[in-house]
UniProtKB/TrEMBL annotation:
Transmembrane segments: none annotated. Pfam families: Aminotran_3. Belongs to the class-III pyridoxal-phosphate-dependent aminotransferase family. CDD domains: OAT_like. One of its GO terms (biological process) is biotin biosynthetic process. Keywords: Aminotransferase, Pyridoxal phosphate, Pyruvate, Transferase. It comes from Oceanisphaera psychrotolerans. Its cofactor is pyridoxal 5'-phosphate. GO terms for molecular function: adenosylmethionine-8-amino-7-oxononanoate transaminase activity; pyridoxal phosphate binding. InterPro entries: Aminotrans_3 (IPR005814), Aminotrans_3_PPA_site (IPR049704), PyrdxlP-dep_Trfase (IPR015424), PyrdxlP-dep_Trfase_major (IPR015421), PyrdxlP-dep_Trfase_small (IPR015422). It comes from the Bacteria. This is Omega amino acid--pyruvate aminotransferase.
Length: 440
């Protein structure tokens, strides 16, 4: 395609001028590989955008979507229903931990976050605690692009252009290169100490004003930061002591990424509300789901009078094609054992860990971190150009036939859960060449 043909699409989260000068065009995908417009096979070490956990082009999912499109293409979900969304909800409730038994559908991770935040407000309001309006997020957290999500998220680029519109404060991030660099699995130091910061924020704002804490169990887009040991449990304890809800944003972590269905199960901490998207449909149809505890749902729904209890929803909530994609995706995860395949102490996660940590000692590498099938390598910032190295390594890897995510001075990996040892060998080879080329 020539430059004129590319002009009309204003691309999201993309340097548009750079892309249009040198497009990276994907035309097909199967299993672990993309096909490009110049007929190259490119290894997908990112599961798309952390979503194609079962690999690309799975026939069971493709057929389910096609069948559903012929049978019931659309159904309004305000005051009407279709059976598949109820079946899917039952299934998700069975998979979820604790009392997360109520499922509310959205079309994306960002919408799941807004929905979860509104649920928290509605819950407190229903209990006569309408002053609880403030949310606590975490530096380097990413919770999507809508106004709630950018307020609780911790990426300053979001604040610069758009501001912060929801009352908020932030925990500090959990990266500690001095004590935890080159951690294999959960970092060992500082978990409880870091979580105790929440007490200071509660003293500052008072629990009577705080609706919820929202965090990703593993920070993803902010740099892949597995929680230091003990951190999540301590956050849960403090929330409980002060009547503050805990929201886990599992948009990346859900559906096998941490070696269990949800990270909440991996880390044995049950939130009050959990957001999901991405892996729910293996990326094959836009869909998110918010799983709410019975106590959240019952407080909102049972205490309301006749009529709509939760004044919220999307035209495409529980879209039939997305429900069909999700049902088929869950079949595949179950049948192919994918929820547990990436367990941190399992063979494939260990193989990735060993391969990546063999890069320690290469010039420019300041950290390598991993948990299950999610990992990052961090580089020394370039003089005068902090945050640019990840993009250079990403471009080089792309040219060598591999897709990575760049996150500032780091690159991140979150491969499809079907990854084999041969793909890991390929990855380590490409990375080593890129790093040597870049840092000399
Ligand atoms: C943890 C988390 N929450 C929310 C989102 C936003 O999801 P979406 O891009 O589907 O709106 C993302 C996207 O990467 C995410 O990683």
């Amino acid at each position: 395609m020539n430059t004129n043909e590319l002009a009309a699409h204003w691309m999201p989260f993309t340097p548009n001028k750079g892309f249009k000068a040198k497009p990276r065009m994907l035309t097909g995908a199967k299993g672990m590989y993309w096909t490009t417009d110049d007929a190259r096979q490119v290894l997908d070490m990112t599961a798309g955008l952390w979503c194609c956990n079962a690999g690309h082009g799975h026939p069971h999912i493709a057929e389910a979507i096609a069948r559903q499109a012929r049978e019931l293409d659309y159904a309004p979900c305000f005051g009407f229903g279709h059976p598949l969304s109820f079946e899917l909800s039952e299934r998700l409730a069975r998979l979820a931990p604790g009392n997360l038994n109520k499922v509310f559908y959205t079309n994306s991770g960002s919408e799941s976050v807004e929905t979860a935040m509104k649920m928290a407000l509605a819950y407190h309001h229903a209990r006569g605690l309408g002053s609880k309006q403030l949310f606590i997020g975490r530096d380097r957290g990413y919770h999507g692009v809508n106004f709630g999500g950018i307020s609780v998220g911790g990426l300053t680029n979001n604040y610069k252009a758009f501001g912060q519109w929801i009352p908020n404060d932030h925990l500090s991030h959990t990266q500690d290169l001095e004590r935890n660099a080159f951690s294999r699995g959960l970092p060992l130091h500082g978990g409880v100490e870091k979580a105790n910061e929440l007490e200071k924020l509660i003293q500052r704002h008072d629990a009577s004003r705080i609706a919820a804490v929202i965090i990703e169990p593993i920070t993803g887009a902010g740099g892949v930061l597995p929680p230091p040991a003990g951190y999540l449990k301590r956050i849960r304890e403090i929330c409980d002591q002060h009547g503050i809800l805990l929201i886990f944003d599992e948009v990346i972590c859900g559906f096998g990424r941490t070696g269990d269905v949800f990270a909440s199960q991996t880390f044995d901490v049950v939130p009050d509300i959990m957001t999901t998207a991405k892996g729910l449909t293996n990326g094959a149809a836009p869909m998110g789901a918010v799983l709410a505890g019975d106590h959240i749902h019952d407080a909102v729904v049972d205490t309301a009078g006749a009529g709509v209890e939760f004044f919220h929803g999307y035209t495409y909530s529980a879209h039939p094609l997305a429900c069909a994609a999700a049902m088929a995706t869950l079949d595949v995860y179950e049948q192919e054992g994918l929820y547990y395949r990436g367990a941190a102490d399992g063979e494939i996660a260990r193989y990735l860990e060993q391969g990546l940590h063999s890069l320690k000692g290469l010039p420019g590498v300041v950290d390598i971190r991993n948990y299950s099938l999610i990992a990052a390598v961090e580089f020394e910032p370039m003089a005068g150009k902090p945050g640019a190295t990840g993009g250079l390594i990403q471009t080089d890897a792309w040219e060598q036939g591999m897709m990575l995510r760049s996150l500032g001075d780091a690159i991140a990996m979150s491969p499809p859960l079907i990854i084999g040892k041969e793909h890991i060998d390929q990855t380590i080879g490409i990375l080593e060449r890129s790093i040597r080329q870049h840092f000399g």
